Amino acid sequence: DLIEVADLVTDMTLVKHPFRSGIKAQQGVEF
């Protein structure tokens, strides 16, 4: 299994994001 032999394994799971609530990118923060 690849996870067994790897030195670093990252599991990035979306829990909550403002975009899903209809909040768009804000100038000065995201761009």
How many strands, what sense, and barrel or not for the largest sheet? none
> Beta fraction of the residues?
under 5%
The helix tally amounts to 1
Provide the gyration radius in Å.
16 Å
Fraction of residues in helices? 10-25%
Q: How are helices and strands ordered from N to C?
A: H
Shape: elongated
Give the rounded overall mean pLDDT.
92
Overall number of strands: 0
Low-confidence runs: none
Question: What is the terminal-to-terminal distance?
Answer: 40 Å
Structural class: little secondary structure
How do the strands and helices of this protein lay out in sequence?
Elements: H1 2-5
Short description:
By secondary structure, this protein is largely without helices or strands.
Features:
13% helix, elongated, 31 residues, little secondary structure
Provide an overview of this structure.
The structure is a single chain. The protein is low in regular secondary structure. It has one helix at residues 2-5. The radius of gyration is 16 Å and the shape is elongated.
